[in-house]
Amino acid sequence: MNLRFWLKLVLSTCLLGWLLQRTPLGDVTADLTRVGLGIFIAGALLSLQCWIDAAIRLWVVAPEFPLTEVVRMSFISQFYGTVLPGQLAGDVVKIWRLGRFQRFPGHAAAATLIDRGIATFALFAIGAFAAFALDTIHRSLGIVLVCATFAIAIAGVMLSLASVRDLLVRLANIGSSRPWLARLSELLHRIAHALHDAMRRPARLMICFILALVFHAICIGNHMLIGHALGIDIGLSAWCLVYAGVSVLMLLPISIAGIGLREGGYVGLLALFGTSRETALALSFTFLGYALLGALLGYVTELMDYRDQ
Predict the structure, then answer these.
(1) 129 CB contacts (<8 Å, ≥6 apart)?
(2) In CA terms, which of 6, 150, 285, 286 is 20 to 30 Å from 62?
(3) Any stretches that span the bilayer, and where are they (predicted)?
(4) For residues 175 and 182, what is the distance between their CA atoms, to the nearest angstrom?
(5) Model confidence at 137, in pLDDT bands (50, 70, 90)?
(6) pLDDT band at 116 (very low <50, low <70, confident <90, very high)
């Protein structure tokens, strides 16, 4: 394992340790015992539905890939996204494993990044709406999310333009003496080509966006379910903002399995609405458990793959 992995492991440990040092574990455990087994099971089923939704969403963007393979690779990416630094690590594994089914080099990468971009666009839009629906304290965050939403949309439109694709080809030729620049330009060109191809099927992009909204709605509903059982009494807009904020933090590849970032995000954001640190950590540990459940399902799927080979 390289130095970067150990640095991220140390960061996760320090963040979580700092929070636990300031929070009585007995109170966190007491909060968790208030949640019935049926609620935990319902939350796990909702999480499973989210993972299936994400797989179908990718398949809608790239129907050339077999649906069964997309579902299997999506579960496997849950495993690698948990054991490797950052959720994006799971996307990298998904791209690599789906590469054997792609029509042209880089198709799997392009489809995965388009899917991720649409899901992130929907996430930022939900977060921005929630921030503006709340009081003025959260308006600055809403402005940031609105800017990020427009940035993703503009980037997608720009990459789909033929002139931009031609520019990327020229950059790849110019940067042939610098391998990293040539590879980056080539990847961007492939993404642009795939996005241009996807733009000719706007119905699929719209379906993907709707599925992304459904995905986020299920996740927010899951938060409300567990949160209500823990006694967190906040409105829908507040839950949307908390979910969006934590989800953005989880994209950062600076920790292992999001440990530390997830807990800090819930504690910090829920504190804005008067939720205690103990209850916020209980919520965070619940969703960490669901993430580990997804990783376990992915690990079992990976083992089955190896046995079939």
Answers:
(1) 142, 237, 240
(2) 150
(3) 113-134, 140-162, 205-230, 236-259, 280-300
(4) 5
(5) low
(6) confident
**How many Å apart are CA 306 and CA 160, to the nearest integer?**
38
CB 123 within 8 A of CB 144: no
> Which pTM value belongs to this model?
0.82
Can you give the length of the chain in residues? 309
CA dihedral sign, ordered 67, 68, 71, 72: negative
What are the angstrom distances between the C-alpha of 1 and each of 8, 95, 102, 193, 261?
Answer: 11, 22, 30, 35, 22
| Tokens 């799927």, residue located | 301
CA dihedral 37, 30, 266, 288 (to 10 degrees): -50
Neighbour tally for 258: CB within 10 Å: 27
Q: Where are the domains of the chain?
A: 3-280
What are 110's two structure tokens?
């392009």
Mean pLDDT over 1-6 rounds to: 62
Cα distance between residue 87 and residue 94, in whole Å: 11
The answer to whether 222 touches 46, Cβ cutoff 8 Å, is yes
Burial class (CB in 10 A: 0-12, 13-18, 19+), 296: middle
Where on the phi/psi map is residue 258: left (φ > 0), alpha (ψ -120 to 50), or beta? left
